[in-house]
Amino acid sequence: MKITKKLPDAEFKIMKVVWKNTPPITTSIVMKQLEEQEEWKLQTIISLMLRLIERNFLRTEKIGKERTYYPLITKEEYLKFETNIFIKQYHDNSLVSVVNAFFDGRKFKDSDLTQLLDWVKRKRL
Amino acid sequence: MEIFITTLVSCSIFMTIIGMIIMSITFLIKEKYKAKWFYYIWVFIVLGLAIPFRPYWGKFLINITNKSDMLIQLVNGYKNNLGIVNNTQMVTTKIYQINSHLYLFIFIAWLIGAIIIIIYSLLKHMNFLFIIKRWNEPIKNKEEINMFKSIKKELGILSHIKLYMCPLIKSPMIIGIINSTILLPPIDYTTPEIALILKHELVHFKRKDLWVKILVIFAIAIHWFNPFIYLLPSIVSRHCELSCDEKILHKKDIKVRLIYFDALVKTIKSQSKIKTSLSYNFFERSKGMEHRLLSILNTKQKKNGRYIILILLPIILSTGVLVGCDKNISTVQPTREPNKTISNTQPKSKNDSKTDFYSKSISKTYKSFVDFQKEAIIEIPYSEQKYGDTYSGTLKFEEGKVIHTTNKFVVTYQGIIKIKAQ
What we know:
Chain A is α+β, with helices and mostly antiparallel strands and 125 residues long. Chain A folds into 2 domains: 9-71, Orthogonal Bundle (Arc Repressor Mutant, subunit A); 75-124. In chain A, α1 packs across α2 (27-34). Chain A is built from 5 helices and 3 strands; from the N terminus they run αααββαβα. Chain A has helices at residues 9-20, 27-34, 42-54, 75-91, 110-124; strands at 58-63, 66-71, 99-101. Residues 57-68, 82-95, 275-285, 321-364, 366-374 and 397-415 of chain B have low confidence and may be disordered. The longest helix of chain B is centred in the first third of the chain and has 50 residues, at 86-135. In chain B, strands 1-2-4-3 form a 4-stranded mixed beta sheet, covered by helices on one side. In chain B, strands 6-5-9-10 form a 4-stranded antiparallel beta sheet. In chain B, strands 7-8-11 form a 3-stranded antiparallel beta sheet, with no helix packed on it. Chain B has 422 residues and is an alpha+beta fold.
């Protein structure tokens, strides 16, 4: 499944709970685990999860009376997707950096880095 | 407006020249002196750029002359010599009219550029914080939390600093000025490596390095027209990291240095996996990184470079004296000294249709330099002088005593007018 769009914050919070638990997941599990952070009603959670089904992030099954959900996209897959966007946005931008990074490789090309690592290897011998 | 622009541009040019000189000096002596001092020098330069207006210290060595003023002076002098006096006024008027519009236009363009850069940086940074926040995970490892606390104590930091793991980032970092947070990337550092990394970030916090970064953005915003300013972030951050490494490894043996070295190499390795099509590869190449890695392993004591700052500080401050702006004189009212008002009446040109621009009379308060009871020397800001202007003055003292003068003065481009009270 290809991810095309970044998740909005509310849906992301739901997905975080989904990833944390072993499927099948029910709305009551999500509700319980989000209780501390959000004051969402059950209806809100159900509609958010419906939207996630539309986005192909979740799949749903009905066992008896209870509706259960299964993740279609793993946390790692989604993380990879967001990391790529994040790097694209901040990799080429030296203008905006109000952070102190231990090593800021944004100014480096890949070939420069491999060269550097070669140099390190030679130095350490 | 003209003064503002000329001051800004001259500050930009002077600081660029100073920066270039320092860069070449740094290149020659970086092995001998402590990285700390180079960093401080650059902080001073950033400050000098971020605050382009220096306090006014009496007279300037060089007065800014803009070309059009020279031109008018030349044209006028030439025409006066030839005896064509009548047309002179017309020429002057026209040039000045164009000038004032042009300066306003330049000012607005500058302002728009500066605002765009500030807003852009702000939005980008907020977006950055937003994305990061989504993924932050609190660190559960008790050992790391305790270590973090003890390092904080060791450095004497009392304020609350959060510690998170962020799977998005590729290098440890500290963010936030008010709500400082240290973020660790998903790299498998060893415990001693993490200790050094946390120490590194906490030293950044203690030295208020993030404030310097904000100043850098501010300097870029106001000097955006200077192409060299875009080199500033990488230069400053390079010296910042070098001096931070130096502080942490001060008097440490090669064992500790090797741990630090490995931590840095691990970070580099994690970033080399990133594939980006567009990469910033301008001036700063892996050479700088090699230098950083080498200085980590270098146990030799370096010389203190305190006197470099002592030499440099007056130079940076003097850029304001060398190319000063006269604006301060007319805007700052003396508090103790008596005020003097001098009104400037423009001579009417014989050609009446052309006098609209010129016939307005200005009444302003200027600060005088020498003040005797009956005589004052008044400096008229350079930009406000127009060739052929006559000034008639009224000396108004704060006590309420008013002395009228009937002297008329013709501006001679010296910028100084003498008024004698009668």
